[in-house]
Amino acid sequence: MTIRHKAIAPIAIAGAISMCAHAARAQTSSAGAEAPAREPASTPQATPGPTSPVEATPTPSSSGGATPTGAPAAIPAPTSPAAAPGVKTATAPASGPASPGQPTATAAEPTVHANEHEGLSSQGAAPALATPAVPEWMKWMRGVTIGAGVLLWYYQPIHVPGVENDVSVFWARLLVDGKWGIFGLHLEPRFRDTKLRPFFDGPAWLQEAYASADFGNTQLRVGKTYSRLGLFWYTSFYGNVQVYDGLKLDPDYGATLQGDLGKATDPVSLGWWLQYFVVDGSTNVSLENRDTISYAGARRRNQVIGRVEPRFAFGPAKLALGASGEYLEATGLPSLDAQNVWRAAADATFTVGDLVVRGEYLHQGGLTVANFPYTGRPSGNNDYVLAGAEYTIGPVTGVYTFSLGSYNDVSYKETMHVPAISVAVSSNISLLGELVFWSSTSPTGSSLIDRSFNVTLHAHL
Questions:
Q1: Nearest to 438 by CA among 424, 448, 429, 427
Q2: Residue ranges of the alpha helices (H) in 38-178?
Q3: Strand 67-68 relative to strand 46-47: parallel, antiparallel, unpaired?
Q4: Residue 321 buriedness (CB in 10 A; 0-12 / 13-18 / 19+)
Q5: Phi, then psi, of 357 in degrees rounded to 5
Q6: In whole angstroms, how far apart are CA 125 and each of 82, 95, 107, 116?
Q7: What residue ranges in 394-428 does DSSP mark as E strands?
Q8: Helices in 33-169 by DSSP H: which ranges?
Q9: Is the dihedral of CA 371, 373, 377, 381 positive or negative?
């Protein structure tokens, strides 16, 4: 018993000293300790542009590339002692997502406990949190955003003899955009299970790939980028007669100089494009025999395109007028010498509130094919008309589009009617249903090209 009591005395003294030391440390901590520092993290994401036709709807912009839309990733709070009983702790929340199409990738605020702030109230604001230095070799990644998307297509023919329904991934794609000072990069590879068209080299291709430089309201792009003849695009997947002749959504190799005079909010402003393409890009969605690129060894060369687009704002209403011109050489066509081809287009887009009305007339002089509309009987005097409207109520958009191709050398015409409904399920998922009535007329009568119901699911990060 004596031995035990002698042992208890020093243990009790040591414990009392330890408790006093702990209390002193706690008082010092509440008086001026910083919250643990940590590196904010965010998840940049990219949005491809609006849903598209027999491919995706690209979204051209003055800066080029994808628009980050992702919200920041959740960041766990750092480990720290629990607050004293009766004292609430507060965590600064990460900012929420912004409107669709606007940048939302922002770093979350560091977590700081309320009792730590209260301990500093008599001394002023809390000290700034330290941020770990980023290695020099990683700083270039600050200007990079990466996104991805997939377009799932269901095709249901309506009383078309010999044609069955089908479902497929029309394409999957990656979007890589970089911005470093005035210089930028845009890269969009696409891929699918099979070739999109028989004349494609394979199931994977580059839709766009270019470097850019921004000079105020002017941008230079060098690489593979879309040509800008007439109206660019609208809410549609299936498309129109023009896109199947290679006149829409056509990326080519060369240089583009584009810009704006004035701002979109000004009563009057102007957009303009000057393009020179050394050679075509060989990857548009034209059907076989309907564009130069479908013939082995044939190419469109030395394409020169100019476009001006004056814009007018009248309160809630806006009007954009477009005038475009193009010259190109079609070489390597079967049994034909090099062809000089001229194209001209005039278009208008009127917007008031949620209603958009558009129209376009385009004329082509010169041969770009050898076997359309008939084998050995091409037409080099062609007129095209595109007209349509769309109206949006909340997440739902109703669309109607009419397109016409008139191949005057052989008295052949094609017309297409496409009523559609688009539903934005979320900021990253949209559904589009389209009815298609596509027919042709000729001196020998009329025929059905396609009559179908098409559903596309577009999902993207």
A1: 448
A2: 114-120
A3: antiparallel
A4: middle
A5: -125, 135
A6: 22, 22, 21, 11
A7: 396-407, 412-424
A8: 114-120
A9: negative
Q: 296: burial class by Cβ within 10 Å (0-12, 13-18, 19+)?
A: exposed
Q: Alpha-carbon distance 373 to 407, whole Å?
A: 8
209: its two tokens: 């790939």
How far apart are the C-alpha atoms of 292 and 76, rounded to whole Å? 56
Q: In the chain, what are the domain boundaries?
A: 139-460
Give pLDDT tens digits along the chain (461 positions): 333 343 344 334 344 444 444 444 444 343 333 333 333 333 333 333 333 445 444 444 433 333 333 333 333 333 333 333 333 333 333 333 333 333 333 333 333 333 333 333 334 455 566 667 778 777 778 889 999 999 999 999 999 999 999 999 999 999 999 999 999 999 999 999 999 999 999 999 999 999 999 999 999 999 999 999 999 999 999 999 999 999 999 999 999 999 999 988 899 999 999 999 999 999 999 999 999 999 999 999 999 999 999 999 998 999 999 999 999 999 999 999 999 999 999 999 999 999 999 999 999 999 999 999 999 999 999 999 999 999 999 999 999 999 999 999 999 999 999 999 999 999 999 999 999 999 999 999 999 999 999 999 999 99
- Backbone φ, ψ for residue 122 (5° rounding): -75, -10
CATH architecture observed for domain 139-460: Beta Barrel (2.40)
